[in-house]
Amino acid sequence: MKLNEVFKKNKLIQANEDHMQQLIYESLHRGPLMPDRVQTSTTNITEKRNIEISEIGKELKKERQELEQMKVDLYHNINQIDDDLEKAVLRYRYLQLLKWDDIAEKMNYDRRYVLKIHKKAKSSYYSKLDTK
Predict the structure, then answer these.
(1) Over the chain, what is the mean pLDDT?
(2) Which of 103, 97, 42, 39 is nearest to 68 (CA)?
(3) Interval 45-72: pLDDT, tens
(4) Rounded to an integer, what distance in angstroms lies between the CA atom of residue 49 and that of residue 27?
(5) Among 22, 37, 66, where does a domain finish?
(6) Is 71 part of any domain?
């Protein structure tokens, strides 16, 4: 599994959560689904929003389960690496989805040094996957 797959899946989940929050907000405030159109009844709009919210909720549940499985697989792959610093950087970055500055702070290293470790860790990660 490629390391960035987790980030992509997480971004998709965030986008769907944002969309769902917008629909919920519109439902609560009875704002128009399409502001350019005049609606005589809010029942259809509300019903459509509720159906869409339900569908997005189901999709989010599935995506979160997929993300968790990806993280489990990634955790096992990262454990194949010998160097503990490399493992730590990969875990912080791809399992906890931390930003570089946050990783550097947690590890008490300079950001540039963390990036250097990361580069080496990626090489170790992919070489271990190739030998499987």
Answers:
(1) 90
(2) 97
(3) 778 888 999 999 999 999 999 999 999 9
(4) 7
(5) 66
(6) no
